[in-house]
Design brief:
The structure holds two protein chains of two kinds. Chain A folds into two domains: 30 residues; 203 residues, MetI-like (MetI-like fold). In chain A, 82% of the residues lie in helices and 0% in strands. The longest helix of chain A has 37 residues. The radius of gyration of chain A is 22 Å and the shape is globular. Helix content of chain B is 85%, strand content 0%. The chains are: A mainly alpha, B mainly alpha. At the A-B interface, helix 4, helix 5, helix 8, helix 9 and helix 10 of A face helix 1, helix 4, helix 5, helix 8 and helix 9 of B.
Chain lengths: 250, 245
């Protein structure tokens, strides 16, 4: 029932938004090159649904690969830094500085290194994801109560068992905060990566529509990006609620 | 602390040394990885062009950052004072925010042209949302009982906002603003890559099309320096203003 009510509210919200959109175009006489009608955007979409579908799948693949790799490497880094403070002190400042670099400027270089492939975009998405996950894993591991660790150790638990049974689960709420951030960032990385040259993908659709000054097509691509962005974020948030059932922070 | 700092310096020296020797030793071509010294030399020899571009990009980023921060905090305060407006506007705001900023860039370029205005708008938007969300979370964080206590002494909503909610929200607002520093430069540069007459992003784009990768690295070096300085400055102000943390 609650799921049904949520879907109902969502549908209502979308209907209100659509009515506002169309109403303001009529009421204020907004020019179509600024804000095209929903009908025009829909027509643009229906003219070539295949292109949008393929673009969606392509960008989804890049985002997912980059995100998954970033999450794995991030958690791994966090554990390594937690275990080896010397490494943490030596490497974390470099990581921090590397994140103040306008990463996306690297897009051009990454596309040069890896060629114009799916992998190149996934690498950019990876680069944007792994850092927040590393930092938050470390934060979460550090916040584990030492008394609990001592208790497990007094029962003869090995370091590995303490890590897997206590420290990592306790760090999960923090890790998921970073994963949600990474979900948004990896999609941006994938889209911008596509600007450096490709044939399919949401980024390509956006760029083509801009060069052709085709505003309805631009909006259609923005909507596809919105669906992908919300869907991915909602999936991560859903996984968070399922996995961290004892209540996440924030 | 000192030990950690020493290790950090050691790490940086090893990293830079490794980079330099790898690039020189394997004589990697510059499109793979130019040596650090080569990048610095290139940045120095084209310093006039780079500094001018850096000024342009920094102006866009700072203007957008200021506007975005003001709008973000203002909107959060407004919505926390008027709950009906909040429940009406939040879904629309979240929907707008669910689209990756990059997807709006082409549209904003078409709307505002390829001058400075389009970059300022996009930076303001990206910064605004980050600051807005953290400010709202901060304003909500206030202890219910403190509010009740102030009310029982006859404080109005504005007094509660000024004396209780805003100070309580400051650490989160500041955190949002600190994260936004880096983001403002990234958004400005990315938008410049799509279309501009000047700026670091434009230089990077030009250098890529001319396959001049040392120049790309030089521009990234300059951009990173601005971004680090901006991040450090906002962090320093934060430590001054929020002394109780």
């Amino acid at each position: 029932m609650r799921a049904l009510a949520a879907v109902g509210r969502l549908a209502l919200g979308l209907a209100v938004a659509a009515a506002l959109w169309q109403g303001s175009i009529l009421a204020f006489g907004i020019k179509p090159h600024l804000l095209p009608s929903l009908g025009a955007i829909g027509a643009e979409f229906m003219a070539a649904p295949q292109a949008y579908w393929h673009g969606f799948l392509r960008t989804l693949a890049e985002t997912l690969i980059g995100f998954a790799a970033g999450a794995l490497v991030g958690v791994f880094n966090g554990v390594v830094f937690f275990r080896a403070p010397v490494l943490r002190d030596m490497l974390l400042p470099i990581f921090v500085v590397s994140q103040t670099i306008p990463v996306i400027a690297f897009g051009a270089l990454v596309v040069m290194w890896f060629g114009n492939t799916l992998l190149a975009k996934a690498v950019i998405a990876f680069y944007l994801t792994f850092f927040p996950v590393t930092v938050n894993t470390l934060l979460g591991l550090n916040s584990v109560d030492p008394k609990q660790v001592a208790l497990l150790k007094s029962f003869g638990a090995s370091d590995r068992q303490v890590m897997l049974r206590l420290q990592l689960p306790m760090a999960l709420p923090q890790i998921f905060v970073a994963l949600r951030l990474g979900a948004s960032l990896s999609l941006i990385g994938a889209i911008v990566g596509e600007w450096f040259g490709d044939n399919t993908g949401i980024g390509v659709l956006l760029l083509l529509a801009m060069f052709n000054e085709n505003v309805p097509a631009l909006w259609a691509a923005i909507f596809v990006a919105a669906i992908l962005g919300t869907g991915f974020y909602a999936t991560v948030a859903w996984a968070e609620r399922r996995i961290v059932f004892w209540g996440a922070e924030q | 602390m000192n030990r950690a700092a020493a290790r950090g310096v050691l790490g940086a020296v090893i990293f830079l040394g490794l980079w330099e020797t790898l690039a020189r030793g394997l004589s990697l071509p510059s499109y793979t990885l130019p040596a650090i010294s080569e990048i610095i030399a290139a940045a120095w020899s084209s310093r006039v062009v780079l500094l001018k571009a850096a000024q342009y990009t920094a102006a866009e980023a700072f203007a957008g950052y200021a506007i975005g921060s003001a709008i973000g905090v203002g909107l959060a305060v407004l919505l926390s004072l008027v709950p009906p407006a909040r429940s009406a506007l939040m879904p629309a705001l979240m929907a707008i925010n669910s689209v990756p900023v990059a997807a709006y860039s082409p549209l904003v370029l078409l709307w505002f042209g390829i001058g400075m205005a389009s970059k300022i708008v996009l930076v303001a938007m990206a910064v605004g949302f980050t600051v807005f969300l953290s400010a709202l979370a901060g304003l909500d964080r206030v202890d219910r009982r403190s509010v009740d206590l102030m009310k029982s002494f006859g404080a109005g909503p504005l007094a509660i906002l000024w004396r209780l909610r805003l100070p309580a929200a400051l650490p989160l607002i500041a955190a949002g603003m600190r994260v936004s520093t880096v983001r403002s430069l990234i958004v400005a540069i990315v938008t410049e890559m799509l279309g501009a007459h000047a700026g670091l992003g434009w230089i990077i784009y030009q250098a890529v099309t001319q396959i001049d990768f040392v120049q790309v690295w030089a521009a990234i070096l300059v951009a990173s320096c601005i971004s680090l300085a901006f991040f450090g400055a906002v962090g320093a102000i934060e430590r001054r203003v929020i002394f109780w943390r």
